[in-house]
Amino acid sequence: MDILDYIWLGIQAVFMGPEAFSFLGVSVSVTIMMVLAGFLFGIVVGATPGLAGPFAMAISLPILISIFGYTPDALLPVMGFLIGIMKGATIGGAVPAILFNTPGTPDAFMTTLDGYPMAQKGQAKKALRIAHFSSASGDTFSDIVLFVCAPFLAIIVEAYLDLPEKTGLLILSLSFIAAVIGGSAGKGLISIGLGLLAVYVGTGEDFYPRMSMGAEGLSRGFPITTAVLGVLIVGAVFKELEEIWRSTGSAKPVHAPAETGDQKLHWADIKNLFPTIFRSAAIGTSIGALPGVGSTLAATLGYTVGRARHQKSKSDDAPDFGDGAPEGVAATEAANSAVSGANLIPVLSLGIPGNAAAVFLILAAESIGGFNPGPAVFRFSPDVVNPELVIAFGIFTCMTIANVINWTIGGVFMRSMGFMINIPKTLLLPAVLLLTLTAIYVQETRLEAIWFALGFGVLGYIMRVLTISPLPFVIAFILGRSLEQTARQAYSATGNDPFFLFNSPIALIFILMSVAVIIFSGRKSKGAAA
Amino acid sequence: MKKLFVAAAAAVSIAVSAVSVQAQDWTPPGPIKLMIAFAAGGGADTQARLIAAELENRLGWEFIPEQVTGKGGVNLLLEMKDEANDGTVIGMVVMESLGYNLYTADVGLSPEDFTPITTTASAQMGIIAGAGTGWGSFDEMIQAGKAGEDIRFGVMSQRLGELAYLLGKAQGVDFNIISVQGGRAVLNGVTAGDMDVGFMAGIQGPGVAAGDLTILASAMSKPLNQDPNAPLLKDLGVDFDGDAIFMFAGPDGMPDEARNAIAAAISEVTSDPSTEVGALIERAFGGSMNLQGADLDEVVMRNFNDSPVLIEAASQ
């Protein structure tokens, strides 16, 4: 079994998996249909202001699991659907941003800056085409980097990092996430701390439940779906409902601006845009590979760098960034789309999620079982098949299929999604809430789960009111258990050495970096405020 | 434990002959909630779900599988104890859950608060080293330990931790015992080199066959199928064994009719290698072990009562 055999097995797992239907004698696998369905669904969701990829992934996951069950066969169809959503939502977000000056997803905000002026000038279709082309390019670039880097990184981690170093790496990731998400290291640490506190209820190695305060409902701890969906989705719905309640009057239906002139994307346009797209794709990919730094920052950076270059190199009659420059749309969309693939590098090689989409992929793997994202996945065992590695290459295959769908029909489908803006939030939000709670109950089948989810929803709401990002909470909740287990194991493995984090140079470096990241980001934000 | 296997063999023959009659005498009054104490997707979970699927096919019973993991099966027992005892709620655990784990959890319960239904199989529990250690036998590991090498020993339950400790004490080596969650974590740890050796409950099969793993000893009361010459724990100075026996149980006071019918039905599908689950059990465990009735009650109770003896021995 060498690497090519594994790649081939991964491709086969996708194409030869359980059959959905056969068309002219050719059998089409469920996984491919699920990638397609997820991708189209993702575009619809992305094009709907108020909904974003994580919403859709959160709601779909329990429903998919109840359809596909907990068998190893379920992994690829479910992951394929989620990957489809992840990719579809990113390009879908550009639609209302360009047509109506309303970003469909948060990372499409920068797209409004040039996309909407282009639409006002009658070039809506062209702007959408540029957005799609840049997005698909950035995405593909990022995926290729993922395919190449994740296995190598995992092998390096396995070869050089022992248990104390792995503990140090987890601590470093958490402190990095606290420092970079949400703009304030202090608030990030609060979010991380709350997440760890919640995950440690009822868990642990002893036979008596920890921190359950004698309550039987708490003795099994909070199910991961209730915490993640509660804080991320229910909390967001509560906050949005509050905003609707505050704002008076309902939104009027809006119409897309009229189109004038040539709407096609010509080879000359592509050649002009190419440097911008490539630069942004590289920025998005590097940002995406860092855990916790999301696509919004990537879009901002891509746009800023693109603007600086544009001002130097543009011809005099070309529009500036902000006045409807095609390069502006390309810079943003290539950058925010390049995040999604690269974000899976820490997920697959270390088991550390970097953004909400990655959180749901890990959640899927954990719920279904049989695939544990982390360095052990990339063990190229020569004699026995490593099923997790086959799944990993199956996931890569799904991503490639999603890219092919994106390049072929993605653009057409995306351009037809303009009408989604007219769905009123007063209908959308209650529906999302109901679906989320149903989805949680489907998976947990006990009523306490609903109470937990609502409780975490209130927590998520309060965090949003206090502008504390809920994402560090969720990532801490997911990493909390492996942090505790790795630390305990490192302690035992070193013969009960309480200073195991400081006795190995690599672990010590990780710990010093964790402290430095917090101090550095604290100083920077003080400086920015002054 | 030898008794146990004799009893098991006897029980199998009785159970199989009686099954068709009993299964028809009793039908569950509703869908059966099947609680599973093992992580989704693992070998034990697959076994439970395949049993349920096969019984749905054969008898038309309906099952609702549900994961209730954590605390070595004690979470499941706590949740199951107040459920309906008419045969509509059963749980799959290991015998250790009703024994050492229930005893240590100190929740005021004993096996008498449950109805043991049937065992399905005994895991091929061995002490397995990674090929990277270079140890070809148990003695070579002990020599390495005595020469001052740190030995990291992975265990997936507290009881196995006690056994590893006793083994080290008997052999004059101080193992660094690393406790992890689930058998796969031991396999991953040993393969990645984070641990040198560990208990594995059958998951070692393909790795041993491929030469990535080495069997050092059997942790069962009998030899391992894959290497019958490997020493047993009792040859190595430990009076306890690491038998991991999968079993089904229900809440206290389940009527005999329901208990026997479920036991017979499960025995029938697990002992038949032509079923998917029977084939799995044949492959992973070398055949089913269906102990039930009063014999099962006795073994489970003895397991529970032995726990303080083990703890006492390990604390000396």
Short description:
The complex is a heterodimer of chains A (530) and B (316). Chain A is mostly helical and 530 residues long. Chain A has helices spanning 3-15, 30-46, 53-68, 72-92, 94-100, 109-120, 124-160, 163-180, 185-199, 224-246, 267-289, 295-313, 326-350, 356-368, 387-415, 425-444, 447-465, 470-493, 500-503, 505-529, and strands at residues 19-23, 26-29.
Instruction: Give the DSSP E fraction of chain B (strand runs of 2 or more residues).
Output: 15-25%
CATH class of the largest domain in chain B: Alpha Beta
What is the residue-averaged pLDDT of chain B? 90
The helix/strand class of chain B is: alpha/beta
Secondary-structure arrangement, i.e. CATH architecture of the largest domain in chain B: 3-Layer(aba) Sandwich
Query: What class, by secondary structure content of chain A?
Result: mainly alpha
Q: In total, how many domains does the architecture of chain A comprise?
A: 1
Tell me the overall shape of chain A.
Answer: globular
CA-CA gap between termini of chain A: 59 Å
Note the beta-strand portion of chain A: under 5%
N- to C-terminal separation of chain B? 25 Å
Biggest sheet features of chain A = 2 strands, antiparallel
CATH topology of the largest domain in chain B: D-Maltodextrin-Binding Protein, domain 2
Low-pLDDT regions of chain B: 17-23
Total number of helical segments of chain A? 20
What strand order characterises the main sheet of chain A? 1-2
CATH superfamily of the largest domain in chain B: Bordetella uptake gene, domain 1
